[in-house]
Amino acid sequence: MISIRRYLTRTLALVLAAVTALAITAAYLITGHEMEEILDAQLSLQSRVVAGLIEPDTSPATYRRIAERLSQPEHFAHLYRASEALPVDASQAARYHHEERKLSVGFWNRDGTPRLLGAVWNDAGPFPAPHEEGYAWVDYDGARWRVFSLYDEASRTWIRSGIHEAFMQELEGKVALGNLIPMLLAVVLLLWAMGVIIRRGLGPIDALSRQVAGRNDRDLSCLDVEVPRELGGLRQAINDFIARLRETLERERRFTADAAHELRTPLAGLKIHLDNARAGESASLDKAYSGVERLQRVVEQLLVLARLDRQDARHVADVDVYPLVLDLVAELWPWAQARHQQIELTGLESLWVRADPVELGILIRNLLDNALRYTPESGTVEIELALSDGLARLIVRDSGPGIPEELIDKVTERFRRAADQRTTGSGLGLSIVLELAKRQAAKLELRNRDPHGLEVSLAWRSLAQGTVPRPRPAPTRQ
After folding, report:
1. What is the CB-side half-sphere exposure of residue 418 using CA atoms within 13 A?
2. Comparing C-alpha atoms, which of 46, 108, 106 is closest to residue 70?
3. 393: DSSP letter
């Protein structure tokens, strides 16, 4: 990818060169047109002045004197009589400017025969006679002349003034060159100024890059370099990314520390029970087995949390909660039966929500697992599906000890356990529930029941799909 500085410099330089070339071309063409008009006006004025000086009775001596004054060194004017050139006094030939050879004037009789022709209009024979008044281009001696022709009725004389094409081109070139040199100097100055402006304009990007490049892997503070308004969005995006990265790394560090702490305790207990079993205490094998079960539970839930922390993509769909709950109840039923617990499913037969089916299943399973784990033997876990205030609700009630009021807002923190510490667990169940509830756009509420027990409620925005949900007439016992 080409650098921004190089791209801007090259592109703007090309644009400036193209604009300069167009401006020079336009100036040259406009100058040529304007110069032609100015010179045409000069020819017209000159011809009319000359016509005003010629009288009907102008003598041949006067024409001879004019011819002598029009002669130039090596280029002599000619006086004609009956189409024959008459000699003139060459001693009077003079040239006061070298460009005079590119200008000339001539006189013709009414019938087109030459009367008097200026210096260079005799070099290759008489210059072509005029036939009509006005401007024209005339080819003579391998060159083109711009001429103006005028007929004076009083003296019955054709008067023609002319300028060599080379004179017009040279004049146009000088004027164009006079404009070109300042313009080229201006282009050079503009290129230098453009480079300075681009370098200064991209300076904040360099400063931002240097601040990012100069950081080590532990520096996750926000960028504080001053940037223009156009780079404010980029700086804010980088700072937001740094904040998310800092939060993720902090969560990873906290998770690693908490997991190490939580795994160390059951592993130490398991080692003690196994040492006792090796010493001959058979009862320690049962305790070791319980320790393995707790360790297995901790590892499973750690894996769930790790997967949730790293999984961003979700497959959202319309899900009926009722059959999902039935499947999970059937899955957990053997465990509840072993502890003589009852599971009741009440409320609606159909409850549609929009969620990820897999994550929703993990969420509800952790709710039921947590409720069964803290419900004593012969206790009851009640599951209710309800629809109220436009919200679909899943409510799980247990008959356990509940949660102390001062801990009810903190019990969803990872590795935070409360209530009955005699129950095996990792303190991760409600943390997983809270994380999944956020991902499913569900609201999680916990409150204690009277006289004891815990009620956990999940609420989603309801979906009107399928048959209209209807209340079940009586609770179902599993």
Report:
1. 21
2. 106
3. E
When mean pLDDT is compared across 45-49, 129-133, 205-209, the lowest value belongs to 205-209
Exposure letters 443-473 (e unless 16+ CB within 10 A, then b): ebebebeeeebbbbbbbbebeeeeeebeeee
Q: Count of residues for the chain?
A: 478
Peptide bond into 357 cis (omega under 30): no
Domains defined for the chain, CATH in brackets: 4-173 (no CATH), 229-310 (1.10.287), 317-477 (3.30.565.10)
Place of tokens 């401006």: 23
Q: What pLDDT is recorded for position 312?
A: 56
Strand bridging mode 157-164 / 143-152:
antiparallel
Phi, psi for residue 313 in degrees, rounded to 5: -75, 135
- Among 129, 139, 81, smallest CA distance to 108 is for 129
Q: What is the pTM of this model?
A: 0.44
Other C-beta atoms closer than 10 Å to the C-beta of 128 total 18
The token pair at 223 is 């960028």
Q: At a CB cut-off of 8 Å and minimum separation 6, what does 443 contact?
A: 437, 458, 459, 460
- Taking the CA atoms of residue 40, residue 44, residue 46 and residue 52 in that order, the dihedral angle to the nearest 10 degrees is 180
Strands 380-388 vs 342-347: parallel, antiparallel or unpaired: parallel
**β-strand pairing of 342-347 with 103-109:** unpaired
How many degrees, rounded to 5, is the angle at CA 469 between CA 467 and CA 474? 130
